[in-house]
Amino acid sequence: MEVLDVIIIGAGPIGMACGIEAKKAGVSYAIFDKGCLVNSIYNYPKGMTFFSTSEKLEIGGVPFISHQPKPNRFEALEYYRRVATTWELSLNLYEKIESIIKESDTFLIKSAKGTYKAKAIIMATGFYDYPYLMGIEGEDLPKVKHYYDEPHPYFGQKLVVVGAANSAVDVALETFRKGAEVIMVIREDKIRESVKYWVRPDIENRIASGEIKAYFNSELTKITESTVEVRTPNGQISLKNDFVLAMTGYKPDFAFLESLGVQFHQDEFHTPIYKEETNETSAANVYIAGVVCGGLITNKWFIENSRVHAELIMKDILTKLGQP
User: Fold this and answer.
1) Distance of alpha carbon 97 from alpha carbon 211, whole angstroms
2) Which terminus of the chain is less hemmed in, N or C, by CB atoms within 10 Å?
3) Which of left, alpha, beta for 42 (phi over 0: left; psi -120 to 50: alpha)?
4) Which domains does the chain have, with CATH numbers?
């Protein structure tokens, strides 16, 4: 069996950047993803516009030209397809890694489709595939969604949006303007300060006018086919409801990292231990790249400031392989 120099898990922009650096260095590699190319971006809301300008999303020296300074989801998908084609990246899409076992100086990697060996592992898995669950009865009902794609399905429906950050606010405003009856259920006593400054007045005004109802210092306790139960400062209430959009945030796949022997800081953010100059974790020859480096602080690393991880990692891998 061929032993690859590195296997990269995650075919998002940073995983792709790692693959590009491997190809530039003449290092044997393969990129795996359980979904499609840039799967997280694909699952973003269909009308989403990035916070970053197009040049900050570029990888591999391929120019990203968009119609507006800040590109949308459709343009990003087109761009990263073009990057993958330009660099002829070795991609194993829709191939979930099921286990990785350390064997002396190599790793044995098993997926649903095959078995592979590699000298190093790069985890560039992001965080968007693992939503925070509310842990309440009825959360598994089909009416409950942890992802949002577009407003049309919610026209004329009684919609509960859970959360007070950017995603929840965007969902509440967009669905309200497309004909949904929107109620927000928020644990905090106000909309979060981190909400985009140009959006915050809009949601606050909609709440103040009563166009969007908001229950602050409140949380869902139960979901049924036709209602939601809400604990509020004034007691328990029951609301008629058609859909629940739980915009409660997402987290990295810590269990996978732990299975590789990666250790974590004893902090509230469950931050992986790694060397900042190489991005190698506490587990030898296991590297992390992108947003996963921040643990639960998922707004620390973005495409624009973690592209450099690919170069740091490949430089260290080349050193270990005895290459200049």
Assistant:
1) 46
2) C
3) alpha
4) 3-130+250-320 (3.50.50.60), 144-246 (3.50.50.60)
Distance CA 33, CA 117 (A): 16
- Return left, alpha or beta for 249; rule: phi > 0 is left, psi -120 to 50 is alpha, else beta: left
* Torsional class of 74: left (φ above 0), alpha (ψ -120 to 50), beta (otherwise): alpha
Instruction: Compute the distance between CA of residue 148 and CA of residue 89 in angstroms, rounded to an integer.
Output: 30
For 56, 226, 237, 291, 296, the CA distances from 304, given in Å and listed in that order, are 5, 43, 44, 11, 19
Task: Write down the residue that tokens 């973005």 correspond to.
Answer: 302
- What's the pTM value of the predicted model, to 2 decimals? 0.87
Could you give the maximum distance between any two Cα atoms of the chain, in Å? 67
Of residues 117 and 298, more confidence is placed in 117
Q: How many CB atoms lie within 10 A of CB 305?
A: 12
| Cα 2 off chain centre by | 32
- Among 109, 133, 103, 134, CA closest to 122: 109
Which letter does DSSP use for residue 214 in this model? Answer: E
Q: What is the pLDDT of residues 47-81, one digit of tens each?
A: 888 888 999 999 999 999 998 889 999 999 999 99
| H or E stretch at 53 | none
What pLDDT band is residue 281 in, cutting at 50, 70 and 90? very high
HSE at residue 260, side-chain half, CA atoms within 13 A, is 30
